[in-house]
Amino acid sequence: MNWRKLNRVLHRDLGYFFFGMTIIYALSGIALNHLDDWNPSYVISREHITLDNLPEKKSKIDQTYALGVAEEFDEEESFKNYYFPEPNLLKIFIEDGSIEVNLESGEGSIEKSVKRPVFYQVNYLHYDPGNWWTWFSDIYAVGLIIIAITGLFVLRGKKGIKGRGAWLTTLGILVPIIFLIVYNNL
Amino acid sequence: MVFTILGCTGNQKENSRENDVASEVLTVGQVMDSPGNYAENRITVEGMVTHVCRHGGKRLHLSASGSDLKLRVRTGEDVPPFERSLEGSTIHVSGKLSEERFDQAYLEKLKQGESRKGSHEEHENASSSSGGVSQAYINELEQRIQASEKGYISQFWLTAEKVIQK
């Protein structure tokens, strides 16, 4: 097998094998680039509520009271627990969410979250869930380098690395260098 | 029902590590009353999960019902990210408690944007796109460091090796 054929085989088969990983990291990369704009892992809904029957004293709030609040909003079945994150704030945990009530005003909200399909899973993997995944993603990274290098030599002629390929490859390297110069980090 | 989210079995190293963990289950209050007594030890703590990090589930807060004390927990090696659905659940976490100190030198690095390591609050306050930390957080941290007698503030973190949901 000559080197060009080996190059093609490597590029093709690694490309096939790492297709899934490329999609995972590409999707999660886009998702995590925009964390300020959305929560990519969960779809969160929030509903404003007002609680009328506030206790006279905070000390009167116990499990029964918290369960009663959950019941008022049809969440008694999903009640889990309660606590006070701040002196005047009651937080009741329910399945897949929570109820928060300001104990002075009675104003609050019910927040519920469900996993965002696909994005939850790809983000989970992107955040490196364990050692085995770290190893596999390292192998993927090496595979990407090989795919990139072999990709340079797949075509021959004027559209290959001696022609059009050279220009586009140079341009692709220049873009991040320009960003580094603009960000004053070169 | 009791089930193990992550168990370390079938491995001599892990078994010996488990044996290092004190069999006594501590409350969040017991640990946070005198965290220095448990620093660098492997302990098991029971508490209610009051917060799971929204970014990657790598950190959570463990509290006691009716208390504002909180113990910071982060995932250890081979422990998968914490699910948000753990909030409100009572769990047992076994792992090593360690102290992190934030002093003036750390603050300077933070101001220059050199340090990304730090507290969960910092992580939560970080702008996800820039990786930076808000000025308000830096100011608050500076005030707390200046007000401290020791010249630094301590944060105690439990690095989870095993998590069991009750």
Q: Report the total helices of chain A.
A: 6
How does the overall form of chain A come out from the CA principal axes? elongated
Spans where pLDDT lies below 50 across 5 or more residues of chain A:
none
**Biggest interface, chains and residue tallies:** A-B, 29 and 26 residues
Strand order of the largest sheet of chain A: 1-5-4-3-2
Distance between the termini of chain A: 42 Å
Helicity of chain B, as a percent range: 25-40%
What amount of the residues of chain B lies in strands? 25-35%
Task: Tell me how many strands of chain A there are.
Answer: 5
Largest sheet of chain A: 5 strands, antiparallel
Provide the structure class of chain B: alpha+beta
Instruction: Compute the CA-based radius of gyration of chain B.
Output: 17 Å
Output mean pLDDT of chain A: 93
Largest sheet: spatial strand order of chain B = 3-4-5-7-6
**Rg of chain A, Å, rounded:** 27 Å
Per-chain topology:
The complex is a heterodimer of chains A (186) and B (166).
Chain A: H1 3-17, H2 19-33, E1 42-50, H3 63-72, E2 79-86, E3 89-94, E4 97-102, E5 107-115, H4 119-126, H5 131-152, H6 164-182
Helix pairs in contact in A: 1-5, 2-4
Chain B: E1 3-6, H1 12-20, E2 25-27, H2 28-33, E3 42-52, E4 59-63, E5 70-75, E6 90-103, H3 104-111, H4 120-125, H5 135-147, E7 152-165
Parallel strand pairs in B: 2-3, 5-7
Antiparallel strand pairs in B: 1-7, 3-4, 3-6, 4-5, 6-7
Walk me through what this model shows.
- The complex is a heterodimer of chains A (about 190) and B (about 170).
- Chain A is of the alpha+beta class and about 190 residues long.
- In chain A, about 50% of the residues lie in helices and about 20% in strands.
- Chain A has 6 helices and 5 strands.
- Chain A has helices spanning about 5-15, 20-35, 65-70, 120-125, 130-150, 165-180, and strands at about 40-50, 80-85, 90-95, 95-100, 105-115.
- In chain A, helix 1 crosses helix 5 (about 130-150) and helix 2 crosses helix 4.
- The mean pLDDT of chain A is about 95.
- Chain B is of the alpha+beta class and about 170 residues long.
- Helix content of chain B is about 25%, strand content about 35%.
- In chain B, helix 3 runs antiparallel to helix 5 (about 135-145).
- Classes of the chains: A alpha+beta (about 190), B alpha+beta (about 170).
- The interface between A and B is medium-sized, with 29 and 26 residues.
